[in-house]
Amino acid sequence: MKATSKPARSQTRGRIWCEEALILNKSLFDSPLCNSETKALQALMLFNIARFATRFDTDGNVIELEYQDRSLWNASLINMAHRFLIESEDSVFFALPPGSFHCLHALFGGRV
Predict the structure, then answer these.
(1) pTM of the model
(2) I want to staple 88 with a disulfide (CB 3.0 to 4.6 A). Which of 39, 51, 70, 96 is the partner?
(3) Spatial distance between the Cα atoms of 11 and 78, rounded to a whole number of angstroms
(4) pLDDT of res. 107
(5) Dist. CA 108–CA 105, nearest whole Å
């Protein structure tokens, strides 16, 4: 077995978990319980999964954001995430202070 097989399995498992989390959050997103935090969390997860293919090298090491090949990012997921983030900021629920997911986005300087 090659040394990269374990990181590859781990990355696949991580992607599956991310997709499951998106599906679970989408249930909240589509319900009356949806608020700005729900939309911001959906955006954060979409931003992350959009660049999943570029987050690790062949040895399973993390590739920092500035070194990732942006041409491999999923532009449609990034656009959807951006729309959800804007909606969360424009939400009537946003009369309250920004939530933790908005703060995470701001922490990364609005970068994906």
Answers:
(1) 0.69
(2) 39
(3) 20
(4) 52
(5) 5
